[in-house]
């Protein structure tokens, strides 16, 4: 058996490979049109580390890349977070006003285009816009679950600034078509999914005389199962998150004095903290995203802060960021495995027993080295008998140490 591995995954310091990295929160600063980074282990903040396009609206993090949707420049920025470099600007069409996006697989993203009334499919690996599909009037929020996407349509009319019939569409990700639509409340914006497979759709009302409601929709057959009042027109929320399957949070604004977060129970469909007893944080809560199983991050647009709090209102962390934070995403940075290069059997030494281990793996179906990179003693991106020979030569004939093929005392990979 020969198992190919990636040489770039081998991060070696002489014989020992040690590397780890904490998760980080990537923040869009809407007014500054920049990104900030918060190290969630150390609390260190790196502000304005890269410039974005015009009117950035959302950031999505995946596999150590940030994907930023810029609404006015109508493009998608792809940023490598490993070295903070812009690697692609994908044109989504002049005047389309892209709003939100979501990944449907490892490389394909769907983006709602608010003005163009379309849904775009983007290949983020090859950096190309594949197709745009009619979806309905004023698509905004999008949520992907298994093979379907759920998209809010608020039917805003810019001529008279009114909102038509609010709708929720279920989209077939593989067939590129609408499966079904359902009428819901006025001005549906964001949506979240609970552990029971129910969608909680925030319908913000018309800001004049129709208040905000949350509509509860069965995600399987797209039927409305409940709705409940959440706020008056004076305190309209515009963003929603559900954590631990049933704890719901709303970005309630609070544009003067304290920022406001509302909460609800996604099992009983009851408001717990509303505009009469909100959770208080920094001014201007414009978005909320899950932080842990019991806490959320809030983007406080006017205060230029990100805060982390729980459903009781306890604030655990507060981070100063750039001008006008409005969107956040956690970048999950997987630590590289720690290992001694050539130590195939993980006994913290390199000797003939590692050669025997590799031979047993390669020819007798034995257990592979863990991590597999530890068995690649000659650093040729494969684990096979040549690695066993290399280790024997190192152990008994004065050969070079593992992964030091030119004998300069430094690893080659």
User: What percentage of residues falls in helices of 4 or more residues?
Assistant: under 10%
Beta percentage is: over 45%
For the report, how would you describe the main beta sheet?
A: 5 strands, antiparallel
Average per-residue pLDDT, rounded, comes to 91
Helix segment count?
2
Radius of gyration: 26 Å
Poorly predicted residue ranges: 1-21
Q: Name the structural class.
A: mainly beta
The tally of strands reads 35
N- to C-terminal separation?
23 Å
Shape: elongated
Oligomeric state of shown chains = single chain
Question: What can you see in these coordinates?
Answer:
A hairpin with a 4-residue loop joins strand 16 and strand 17 (162-163). The chain has helices spanning 352-364, 385-396, and strands spanning 3-4, 16-17, 24-29, 34-39, 45-51, 56-62, 65-70, 75-80, 85-91, 98-103, 108-113, 118-123, 128-134, 139-145, 148-153, 156-157, 162-163, 167-172, 177-183, 188-193, 198-203, 212-218, 223-231, 240-243, 247-251, 259-265, 270-273, 279-281, 285-290, 295-300, 305-310, 315-320, 325-331, 339-340, 382-383. Helix 1 runs antiparallel to helix 2. With 413 residues, the protein is mainly β. It is elongated and about 85 Å long. Residues 1-21 have low confidence and may be disordered. The strands form 10 sheets. Strands 24, 25, 26, 27 and 28 form a 5-stranded antiparallel β-sheet that branches. The longest helix has 13 residues, at 352-364. The chain is built from 2 helices and 35 strands.
């Amino acid at each position: 058996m020969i198992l190919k591995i990636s040489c770039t995954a081998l991060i070696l310091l002489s014989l020992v490979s040690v590397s780890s990295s904490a998760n980080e929160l990537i923040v869009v600063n809407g007014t500054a049109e920049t990104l900030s980074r918060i190290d969630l282990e150390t609390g260190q903040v790196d502000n304005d580390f890269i410039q974005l396009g015009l009117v950035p609206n959302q950031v999505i993090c995946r596999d150590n890349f940030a994907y930023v949707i810029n609404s006015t420049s109508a493009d998608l920025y792809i940023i490598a977070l490993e070295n903070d470099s812009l690697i692609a600007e994908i044109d989504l069409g002049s005047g389309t006003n892209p709003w939100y996006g979501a990944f449907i697989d490892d490389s394909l993203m769907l983006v709602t285009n608010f003005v163009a009334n379309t849904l775009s499919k983007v290949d983020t690996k090859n950096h190309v816009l594949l197709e745009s599909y009619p979806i309905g009037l004023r698509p905004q929020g999008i949520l992907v679950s298994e093979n379907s996407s759920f998209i809010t349509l608020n039917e805003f009319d810019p001529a008279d600034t009114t909102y038509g019939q609010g709708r929720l569409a279920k989209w077939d990700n593989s067939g590129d078509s609408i499966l079904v639509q359902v009428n819901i409340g006025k001005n549906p914006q964001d949506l979240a999914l609970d552990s029971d497979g129910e969608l909680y759709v925030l319908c913000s009302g018309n800001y004049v005389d129709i208040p905000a409601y949350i509509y509860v929709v069965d995600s399987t057959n797209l039927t409305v199962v409940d709705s409940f009042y959440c706020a008056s027109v004076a305190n309209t929320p515009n963003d929603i998150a559900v954590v631990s399957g049933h704890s719901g949070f709303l970005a309630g604004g609070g544009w003067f004095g304290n920022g406001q977060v509302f909460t609800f129970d996604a099992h009983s469909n009851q408001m717990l903290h509303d505009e009469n007893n909100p959770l208080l944080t920094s001014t201007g809560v414009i978005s909320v995203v899950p932080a842990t199983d019991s806490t959320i991050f809030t983007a406080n647009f006017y205060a230029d802060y990100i805060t982390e709090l729980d459903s009781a209102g306890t604030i655990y962390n507060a981070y100063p960021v750039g001008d006008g934070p409005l969107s956040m995403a956690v970048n999950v940075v997987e630590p590289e495995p720690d290992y001694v290069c050539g130590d195939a059997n993980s006994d913290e030494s390199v000797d003939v027993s590692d050669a025997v281990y590799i031979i047993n793996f390669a020819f007798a179906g034995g257990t592979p080295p863990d991590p597999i990179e530890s068995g690649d003693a000659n650093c040729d991106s494969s684990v096979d008998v040549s690695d066993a020979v290399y280790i024997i030569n190192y152990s008994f004939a004065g050969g070079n140490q593992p992964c030091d093929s030119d004998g300069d005392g430094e690893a080659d990979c």
